[in-house]
Write a structure and sequence with these properties.
By secondary structure, the chain is an all-alpha fold. It has one domain. Helix content is 78%, strand content 0%. The chain has helices at 4-28, 47-74, 77-108, 118-139, 144-170, 183-186, 190-236.
Length: 237
Amino acid sequence: MPSQRDVGFTLTFLGIIGAVATLILGLYWAPLVDPGSWNAPEAYRILYWHVPFAWSSFLAFSMLFVGAISWYRNRTDWGWRWVSTGSDLGLLFGLGVVTSGPIWGSAEWGVPWDWGDLRLNTFALLTAVAFFLVLSKKSQPDGQDTRDTLAAIGLFGFALVPITAVATTWYQERHPGVVIVNSEESGLDPQIFSVLVIGFVSFLILFVGLAILTDLVQRMESKLEQRLREIDEEVAN
């Protein structure tokens, strides 16, 4: 039976291969969008990574939310590991969004960021929450009080997810509307839709692989800390 490590590395590798394939298909196979509707029709191709990055970040924050609820209800170790993993991956994929988005915005809008756009700013705040959680885990002593505080912050961060997801509908400025995963309803070209689906599946596989590996690292760190405490107690006695 494959070990957790083998499964994690395999899925991560497959996800990276799929992400690269998505990029290649988006650059060379997907058709050009209507130049009359876009200021920089070629620049739209970065969205084949930008959109899956966003989907994956929402999965990470959902993972953080479930972990925080479990931690508060039952003080479960797996709940805290999900908080940690969700914040780590939320930061990783969130940075992918806030990096790729401004590149497209610079070409399409003429500015990398619009401070008047609700969706952009709520997502930036969401990524900042993940960044704070990751830094705090590294800098603060591990304990129930620290975990309670960070889990509470994670719950606040998750509250921004539905706001970010529907902000374009409520308060549309520059950001494109929500991408509907249905080519007929969204009016997407079938090739564009196909590349987006490949990107979504690839990033999902990558997300699962990284989540497994991150969880494994946290298990190993927990065992190491426990063993160090046991050694300290033996030395003290």
